[in-house]
Specification:
The protein is built from two helices and eight strands, in the order H-E-E-E-H-E-E-E-E-E. By secondary structure, it is an alpha+beta fold. It has one domain: Sandwich (Immunoglobulin-like). The strands form two sheets. Strands 2, 3, 5, 6 and 7 form a five-stranded antiparallel sheet that branches. A hairpin with a 5-residue loop joins strand 2 and strand 3. The chain is globular, with a radius of gyration of 19 Å.
C-alpha cells in the first residue's frame, strides 16, 4: 500500500511538471511587438492624495509612469505601446502632496504601496519578485498595503 501511494504521488508530480507554465517573472526577449498593459489597483484610500504608478524595464530604468487621483486609481490604468519583455511594476499612494514614499527611521514604508505579483516582503523587493513577462496584452492586479 505504501509503495502504491508513492508511485501515485510520483505520477501526479510528473504530470504536473509536464503541464506547468513558465514562471510569471521569466525574462522575455523583445520581439518588436507592442502591447497594452492594464493595471488594477486595490485598497486605494479615497482620503489620501495622489497615486504614483511606475513601470521599470530589466535595466531597472523607468519606462512608464503615471500620477493619478484616488478616483482614477479605482479604474483600470492603461499603458499603451509596451514592448515585449519583463517589467517590474510598483505603486504607492501619498498621504501628503509630495511624490516621495515616506518611511520610518527604520525604513518601513509609512504610506500604502504595492508591487506586481503582490509578494510578501521582508525588505526591498528584487526585480524578479515584482516583474511580469509581457508578450501579449496583459492585466496586472496590485494590492496597496500599509506596513507602518
Amino acid at each position: 500500500m505504501k509503495i502504491l501511494s508513492i508511485v501515485l504521488l510520483l505520477g501526479l508530480i510528473l504530470s504536473l511538471s509536464l503541464t506547468a507554465k513558465p514562471p510569471v517573472n521569466e525574462v522575455l526577449v523583445n520581439d518588436g511587438k507592442l502591447h497594452q498593459l492594464t493595471v488594477e489597483l486595490h485598497q486605494v484610500n479615497s482620503e489620501y492624495k495622489s497615486v504614483y504608478l511606475y513601470v521599470y524595464d530589466e535595466a531597472e530604468e523607468r519606462v512608464f509612469s503615471k500620477t493619478i487621483s484616488p478616483a482614477q486609481a479605482m479604474q483600470p490604468i492603461i499603458f499603451e505601446g509596451v514592448e515585449s519583455g519583463s517589467y517590474a511594476i510598483y505603486a504607492h499612494q501619498n498621504k501628503d502632496d509630495d511624490p516621495t514614499l515616506n518611511t520610518s527611521p527604520a525604513g518601513v514604508p509609512l504610506e500604502p504601496l504595492g508591487f506586481a505579483n503582490n509578494p510578501v516582503l521582508m525588505g526591498p523587493p528584487a526585480f524578479q519578485d515584482i516583474s511580469v513577462g509581457i508578450s501579449e496584452d496583459t492585466k496586472v492586479s496590485i494590492n496597496l498595503m500599509t506596513y507602518g
